[in-house]
Amino acid sequence: RIKRKIKNQGIEARFIDGLIRSSRAVEGGKKYYSLWDSYVLADVVTYPSLLEGWGNQFIETVFAEKPIVLFEYPVFKADIKPEGYSFISLGDKTVFNRQTGLWEVGKNVLTKAAEELGEVLTDPGTGKKLRANFDLARKNNSYIVLRDLMERILEP
User: Fold this and answer.
1) Is residue 68 a contact partner of residue 58, using CB atoms and an 8 Å limit?
2) Closest C-alpha to 91, from 66, 72, 118
3) What is the pLDDT of residues 97-118, one digit of tens each?
4) Closest by alpha carbon to 60, among 145, 149, 146, 141?
5) How many helices (H) and strands (E) does the chain have?
6) What residues does 70 pair with on adjacent strands?
7) Dihedral sign of CA atoms 33, 39, 42, 46 in order
8) Model-level pTM?
9) 28-52: pLDDT as tens digits
């Protein structure tokens, strides 16, 4: 449905999901790239999920030090947003479009997010904000934090 909508609007897009795997590989002379490669090469990561378990993609994006555009799904609002990350919001409300079969955010929300993204991509201070996000993630959501938490939970 998304591909059809993109095509109907005349937007040039490349879908590379067939080239991405959990790790780099070469099979039959064809190269496959890791998910991390896609983060490294991205200018921005969009994260429009309506529902998520927790937010692995969010943390991966933060550790890659990339700007993020996201829909504020319930778990994000409850568990991640309070930590104070910088991000571009698609809000937390949607409307179902019966014609396209897709959930949509309001045009004014989308316009505001696009304007903010333009500023983020051209602002020399963006690197500092992304580094601050990285430091927040290291403090709150790193493997070290997870290990310490698991040790406390599993201690006899």
Assistant:
1) yes
2) 72
3) 999 899 999 999 999 999 999 9
4) 141
5) 7, 8
6) 47, 89
7) positive
8) 0.85
9) 999 999 999 999 899 999 988 888 8
